[in-house]
């Protein structure tokens, strides 16, 4: 067998060294993309339509419903850290995907069960009718069933998001220039999978939920999730698998900080070669990763200071760490400012999934005389656009940009993220303008107290598509750029957790949305007739437009902070090192990345 066919550090499903001609590659990754498409088909409808379910079926008020949705989304994303830790350390990424997808399937099944049987939900009523007196919120065992099912879905979705992108990237050898470019394309096509699954979810499944019943809508989601499991499992013999060692790279990062605290009184040596590193010639070093020492965050180097008490064959890892361990800790610490700058974007996204949907409920949703578009289906517009623009971006824009920049991804990851952050600010500004226009129509037609759905305003819901459209383009730049950035920069044994930087950023954004909504309502309670900018169920009398302007300004300020952060960031040496000079031009320090 040609030794070149073997892939270092990857095995097949039977534990044998993976072969390039039999395992992995872009063709195999299509199964992973298909599974992700089915998963998004099953769950994306929840992200946009759960608020309607909470208010119309479970009879929660709008603010509480919005907060429950953002808490659910935030929990789903924050759980990615736990699942990624288990995937990288004990389970393996493919097994983690299968277990998580099965849990998600169970949660969706329970939601369908509750929606089907009347005994499991409150009696019917119209929560928007101020004369209705029999609207009872879901309580007791029914509320418990609702949230158990919902958070099972959150756990499963978090697990899939934690392990599946990294498992997909494992199908490529980043040391092979051709496969390195294919891996960059994989992340673009990962968004394409989200869009294809999302397009079906936002149209077909949302329409079923709104017109044929929530029970049938949840049932279709359950079937989609089942198909996703089958598609993913069909590729088990063809996948490349990352070898897990049973020890956690995350634990090694923690050991660095503990060692720094314990060695805080020691003096750093002038020569960095005196810091501790295992001998590359030793048998123990065969499978070890080695990183060169860097001069950033020098205080962490104290974890690698050797003393007479630590010089032994097996030093205490909580007192003496390898230089490579320390460098991995520096890499993660270096990424934290970028992570923090992306939280605000999810804060904006949360409003499009909650308040913007409820804006749509007050507007004219007709497409033809006999067909109305559900407001929750509005995000289909940027999704459809992305389905066409992603292949153009990947096959035309990136190769053209590559010729000018010498960078395999066309533009750097951080440049891509920055474009998305600007567009998210613009999206919120457009949302504020559209809300002013909607309220003006309500005022001009004496419909400030009109009941949503029953008395729609004479203004088309498609006016809201502009804000969704702009944010959809921001999605393509920022979220895909972040996935590539975190995966490429993270230490080898933290690839699953690297994708969780994105999901955790989104989790913080969703939780922050709950805090911001409550804070804004409390701060404006006594200065508005509605009892707060976002208080009450009547959007015609509250001040959602001011809230959107606030988010737009926050996003713009965040972008200027991001410029400062990105200029200071230095890329990981092994792949490429890009530095932004004072004139704002990015210079490639290692041309190997651009091959």
From TrEMBL:
Gene3D superfamilies: MFS general substrate transporter like domains. It is found in: Membrane. It is a multi-pass membrane protein. The chain crosses the membrane at residues 30-54, 74-91, 98-117, 143-164, 185-208, 214-236, 331-353, 373-393, 413-434, 466-488, 500-520, 546-565. Its main location: membrane. It comes from Forsythia ovata. Keywords: Membrane, Transmembrane, Transmembrane helix. Signal peptide: none annotated. Belongs to the major facilitator superfamily. Phosphate:H(+) symporter (TC 2.A.1.9) family. Belongs to the major facilitator superfamily. Proton-dependent oligopeptide transporter (POT/PTR) (TC 2.A.17) family. This is Protein NRT1/PTR FAMILY 4.3. One of its GO terms (cellular component) is membrane.
